[in-house]
Design a protein that fits this description.
heterodimer, A: mainly beta, four-stranded antiparallel sheet, B: mainly beta, six-stranded mixed sheet, three-stranded antiparallel sheet, 9 strands
Chain lengths: 120, 111
């Protein structure tokens, strides 16, 4: 059974930093592209970043470029999102999602999400 | 404002057919990139319903179907059921943005 489990979401002040993690199981992790997708309270879905299966290719939405960094450790089946210079508008539930079809493919599986709140 | 445009809401009576449109442009749907559809119940994670325009993952009922033409795509739900009340999102890739894009979401209400 495929499982994606996010962790690390907390309350953080504006300008602060936070690191989210996504633990994967039930599939061959290194053959899947992975992404972070967020959803602000009461709003729609927004793609944040993606990383290729080998970790050699990363892409970011303009809204987080230069502030967020995505990485993965295929030996531990984990993906991370380092979030710096956080803003109130970054407040959202952050989901990790897998893509068998590569970085532009569909999101086949999703985690349950972790809530990040940026507020003083 | 989302790159892909969906109607905010659609509704129908049980047993009816409803469709949700997803309008894009020449840099996403019109460029030939696949369109994918997700369903999300309140407080839960989205789930893949349709991938690559019209394909259903294992376990998704054939009441759900997808289509694509030009710069637009559609999701159709036939035999509408009370359990279909949820938010539905389309998603594709945009070459101008070099990133993945979502529609703003459509709330389906069963009357």
């Amino acid at each position: 059974e495929v499982q994606l489990v996010e962790s690390g979401g907390v309350l953080v002040p504006p300008g602060g930093s936070l690191r989210l993690s996504c633990a994967a199981s039930g599939f061959t992790f290194s053959t899947y592209a992975m992404s972070w997708v967020r959803q602000a309270p009461g709003k729609g879905l927004e793609w944040v970043s993606g990383i290729g299966g080998s970790g050699g290719s990363t892409h970011y939405a303009d809204s987080v470029k230069g502030r967020f960094t995505t990485s993965r450790d295929n030996s531990k089946n984990t993906m991370s999102l380092q979030m710096n210079s956080l803003r109130p508008e970054d407040t959202a539930v952050y989901y990790c999602a897998s893509s068998a079809g590569g970085l532009i493919g569909s999101f086949d599986y999703w985690g349950q999400g972790t809530l990040v709140t940026v507020s003083s | 404002q989302s790159v892909l445009t969906q109607p905010p809401s659609v509704s129908g009576a049980p047993g009816q057919r409803v469709t949700i449109s997803c309008t894009g442009s020449s840099s996403n749907i019109g460029a030939g990139y696949g369109v994918h559809w997700y369903r999300q119940f309140p407080g839960t994670a989205p789930k893949l319903l349709i991938y690559d325009n019209y394909n259903r993952p294992s376990g998704v009922p054939d009441r759900f179907s997808g289509s694509k033409s030009g710069t637009s795509a559609s999701l159709a739900i036939t035999g509408l059921q009370a359990e279909d009340e949820a938010d539905y999102y389309c998603q594709s890739y945009d070459s101008s943005l070099s990133g993945l894009v979502f529609g703003g979401g459509t709330k389906v209400t069963v009357l």
